[in-house]
Request: fold
Amino acid sequence: AGSSAAQPPETAGSRADYGAALEIGRRVLEHWTRGIFACAHDLTLFAMARTNQDFETLKTIARSTSVEELLRCQCDFAQKAAADYSAESARLFQLMTDFTGNALATNQQAVTAHADEKSAWQVTPSAPPPASPPERERRGGSRPRPIAARQAASDRGE
Reply:
């Protein structure tokens, strides 16, 4: 069939390519898993802290003796909750950006390394040689004829 001179024997049938792809995938998955666990841990701590603050607010509301005190407590609670959720959103966004960037950088490095390794043994096909002058003439010439020459040829029935 075909010559295997362009491929080292151990990569015949692309077996080495599958191994490299699996290794790249494993590295990327490892970064994603660590990132997801970091986000889950951060969310758990945040939820615990917010739950404790919510219970403290409920205790304060239960002890309030006036409508003004109740409204102040609710207003403080809403402002603190908004600030906490905003800060947590920013923290989670940063965590996700970091682990996504790390995973993509790892993937790019692995793909580049694999491509460099693979290109060391691949043969790049060369472009076909330009057509020789007789071949160009047989195909109708390499340059279009001037309009006057085309018109004259058309008048003669060529």
Summary: The mean pLDDT is 76. The chain is about 75% helix and 0% strand.
